[in-house]
Structure formats: C-alpha cells, structure tokens
Amino acid sequence: MSQPLLPIDVPSAGPGSNTTTFADNMRLPVHRWFRYSAGFSAQWAGSVIEESGAKHVLDPFGGSGTTVIASEEIGVAGIGLDVHPFVTRIAKAKLAWRADPDILVKRANDIRLEAEKERPVVAPPAPLIAKCFPDRKTLLNLLRIRDAVERLRVGDEYDELLWLAFVSIIRACSPAGTAQWQYVLPNKTKSRVAEPLTAFEARVEVFAQDMWAMRSRRSAPEGKIVEADARTLDGVPDGWADLILTSPPYANNFDYADATRLEQSFLGEITGWGDLKQLRKKLMKSATQHMGGWDAAEALESPLIESIREELLAVFGELSSIKRSKAGNKAYDLMVAGYFLDSAQIWHALRRASSPGVKVCYVVGDSAPYGVHVPVERWLGELALAAGFKEWRFEKVRDRNTKWKNRKHNHPLHEGRLWIEG
Ligand SMILES: C[S@@+](CC[C@H](N)C(=O)[O-])C[C@H]1O[C@@H](n2cnc3c(N)ncnc32)[C@H](O)[C@@H]1O
C-alpha cells in the first residue's frame, strides 16, 4: 500500500490505479530491501520521471528512498529528504547498492561466524521486545547478530548494508503481527516466523543478487538522501528541481514516529512511548500525537494560510466543538490547522528549491476526522498557488474507505495525484 491509511481491499478506480502502492516494490531490486508500507511504487515513480524528461528530481518526503533510487535507475539526479532519522538511514543504506556484492557476502560471513560465538548479550529494555520475542532462542540469536554487526563495523558502506540486512529481518523473526499501517501488533500472531541466522543470510543473498542486477546502472548520477525538514529543504540548492515527486503524510492521524518502533526498540534507540516525543516534534503535523503543547492561535492568523483561512477556520471550529462532546477528546482541530500551516511552509520551500516551469506530482488523499470533511487536495492546490506555483489539477486514482467511515460520515474519500505546474 502507499499511504498507511489505505485499506488493501478497496477496489481500484481504473487501469494503472495501483501504481501508487509499495507492494509491487517487493519484487524490485533494491526497493525490496525494506518493506516501508508508506512508500509508493517505484515503477510508477520511474514512469513519471521518464515522461517528464526531468534532469533533477526532488522528493521532500523521501521515506525509504523510492524516488531517488528510481531516478538513479533512469540516469537522472535525485535528492530525497526525510526528517525521520531511522527511515533516512534505511534509504541511505539502500543507496549503497553500487558496492561490491562479493565483499558484502564475505563480510556477512564474518558476521555469521562472530554471531555463532557464545558471547553474553544484553536484551533491549523496551517491554515491547519481550512481548514480541517470546522465544528465548530466537531473541538470543537476533541479539548475537545485532552485536556482531556492531562489533565488526569498520566505518564503510558495507557496515550500513549489513545493518539494513539485520534491521530488515527483525519483524520476520517475531511472531507479532504488523498492522496495515506498519504499527507492530504484539497481540496478533503470524504463523511463519523466520530463524535469525537463516533469515540474515537469505537477506544478504537478496542484497547481493540485486547489486549484481543493478551493475549496468552504476554509471548513473548518484542520488542523495538528506536527513532534513521539508519545511526548509536545507541542503537543496535554490532553483534545483525540475520535477518534484512525492507523497507527503496525509492528514489522517498516522504517526510516522511509530512506524519503525519495533526495529528501533530492538536496537535500543527507544524504550517506550516517551522516546518517540522528540521525533514527533520534528515531523510534519499530521497526527494528534504530534500536537502536544502546540497552540493553533498563531497558525490560524498566519498570512501563509490566507488563501484558505475562511474555510479552515470553519472546519477548525466544527472539529473543536465536536471534540468537546467526545470522551476521546482528540485534537483533530489542531492537527488540521498544523497540517495546513506546515503545508504552506513546504510550498514556499519547494518554490525556492525549484526552477520556473517545474512539474510537481503530490500523491495525497483527503480526510474526514470526526466525520468532518477536509478537502485536502483543493486546499493544498490553493496554498501552492499562493506560494507562487501556476496551476493545479487533481487526478483521482482510487476511492478509499477509512476508519472515519465507520463513524458514519457520508463523505466518500479518495486518493490521487495533485499535479502542479510552476
Ligand atoms: C508517505 S511517506 C513517503 C514514502 C516514500 N514515498 C517512499 O516510497 O518510501 C511520508 C514521509 O514523510 C516523512 N516526513 C514527515 N514529516 C516530515 C518533514 N517535516 N520533513 C520531511 N519528511 C517528513 C515521514 O517520515 C515519511 O517517511
């Protein structure tokens, strides 16, 4: 699936409509190295890049690197940004596909030998790990690989490839299920669980095969992944992009800070919910969990949202009043205000970083928190024009059902591509 909110059972809206899903990437070299459910289809991204004739492709919400790797495959320059450090690290590791597969296999073999040594291990303190790895032997073997990967680090790109090979087997070795939106479900079990050393070897084998398969593309310009905020686009030169191809977070309450909680807990980077706070502060506001301590008053007065202010205020007011009547008291009012203020900042940053005549393709869906419809693509289009882009149109790709529908609102929701010319 592309965005985390999409149910897989929704019928597609027409030919080619599934081109925005990540599932297809699981058959493609390099793209398949980590299943990032929020990602979109690499083949589709490649076709957009090719048809556009672009030379400089920018993805301000680069996630697992799909757009940048697709650019490399076509032979054009790509820059992808993401503010999530763990996801950025995954994307950067994927860009090491140009390394020598034989060396990778040899280094993986050293790790296997190291992991077989009976050394003491320290389990991560996160309670989630004990829950997700009830089998002691599996946990022990995974911890030994984790430690071997760290011990045999020499400071080169193979370190990162081996780190990714390890990270990408953690879920497969746990009986815990994964929700459609990549949240881990410790209480839901899956039937097939991988054995760590076998899974690690198999992963490295897949990486090596893909590195061989991609050899003919080695001469393409190397893509760049930057850990940075789409609201400022630090690191992207003025006027650089002639194509912006991206899928931002949707205003749908998905918390990207939580998407890699299992993997980060395993590595000891986070222990509990509190540790996600710092990352949540960095993310574009798109979930109520991102809103702690945030005051909407300033946002609603900002000149940046002038072009949608009246409508936004109406939606904000309705959500505030519904919130007061609900036991859950969810701050969807703040989420919506924060989402569009952030979006306005992003359009200004994108305008700075793009050339005149740039093409923009924004894969996005609308939203209806507490049953109140938010016309996301129209508001995004209007904010883009206010930031200096020339025109927008929306191409619907599919209808979608969401949890909002269960709350009996009657707005059919959809997902599609917001095309902007500038
Ligand atoms: C829909 S995903 C993009 C997935 C990507 N297309 C792929 O194929 O992997 C949206 C991404 O936006 C990132 N994000 C959220 N807030 C951000 C911000 N302020 N700046 C840059 N990236 C951000 C999230 O971490 C997430 O990876």
From TrEMBL:
SUPFAM superfamilies (alphabetical): S-adenosyl-L-methionine-dependent methyltransferases (SSF53335)
Keywords: Methyltransferase, Restriction system, S-adenosyl-L-methionine, Transferase
Class of enzymatic activity (EC top level): transferase
Family of this protein: Belongs to the N(4)/N(6)-methyltransferase family. N(4) subfamily.
InterPro entries in alphabetical order: MeTrfase_CN4_CS, SAM-dependent_MTases_sf
Organism: Saccharopolyspora spinosa
Enzyme Commission number, as recorded: 2.1.1.113
Molecular function (Gene Ontology), one example: DNA binding
Biological process, per Gene Ontology: DNA restriction-modification system; methylation
Protein name: site-specific DNA-methyltransferase (cytosine-N(4)-specific)
Catalysed reactions, as listed in the record: a 2'-deoxycytidine in DNA + S-adenosyl-L-methionine = an N(4)-methyl-2'-deoxycytidine in DNA + S-adenosyl-L-homocysteine + H(+)
